[in-house]
Amino acid sequence: HVQLVESGGGSVQAGGALRLSCAASIFRYSIHCMAWFRQAPGKEREAVATVDTYGNTDYADSVKGRFTISRDNAKNTLYLQMNSLKPEDTAMYYCAADRSFCNGGAPALFAYWGQGTQVTVS
After folding, report:
1. To which H or E segment does residue 4 belong?
2. pLDDT of the chain along its 122 residues, tens only?
3. 8 Å CB contact between 102 and 32
4. Which among 13, 69, 73, 102 is least buried, having the fewest CB atoms inside 10 angstroms?
C-alpha cells in the first residue's frame, strides 16, 4: 500500500510563491509516474504537472514557466515549486502516483492519492 502525504499549502498574495511537498511511503523505484493535480470548487480535477522516474516532466499550459515539479528519489519525495501565483491557482492540490509510466494527466491513470493541501491566492 502506498501512502502519500502533502504539505506546504497555505495562503499567499498574488505574485507570491509556495512550495508543496509530498512524502511517499514506497520504494523509490516502484513508482514511475508522480503528479500534482488541483481541483477548485465546482471544477474538475486537473493535472498540473507530471514527472517520471527519469526526471521527464510535463506541465499544464496554465502553469508553464511558473511552476516546477521535481522528485527526490532518495527521499521518496515529490515537490511543486509555485512562483508568480495567481488567484486562479487557488485550489486543493493533490499528489498522485502510479507504478506505470507517465501517459498523460487523466486522474484515472493514477492509483495512489494524497489527502490534498489547500492553496489560496488572493
Report:
1. strand 4-7
2. 789 999 999 999 999 999 999 999 875 557 889 999 999 999 999 999 999 988 999 999 999 999 999 998 888 899 999 999 999 999 999 999 998 889 888 999 999 999 999 999 99
3. yes
4. 13
> How far is 14 from 45, CA to CA, in rounded Å?
22
Question: Of 17, 20, 2, which is closest to residue 93 (Cα–Cα)?
Answer: 20
Q: Which residue has the cell 505574485?
A: 15
Instruction: Collapse the DSSP code of 71 into the 3-class scheme (helix H, G, I; strand E, B; otherwise coil) and give the result.
Output: strand
Cell of 72: 527526490
Q: Using CA atoms, how far apart are residues 122 and 120, in angstroms rounded to an integer? A: 7
Distance of CA 37 to the CA centre of its chain: 5
Q: How far apart are CA 103 and CA 113, in angstroms?
A: 17
Detail the DSSP E strand segments found in 8-121.
Answer: 10-12, 18-24, 33-39, 46-52, 57-59, 67-72, 77-82, 91-98, 112-113, 117-121
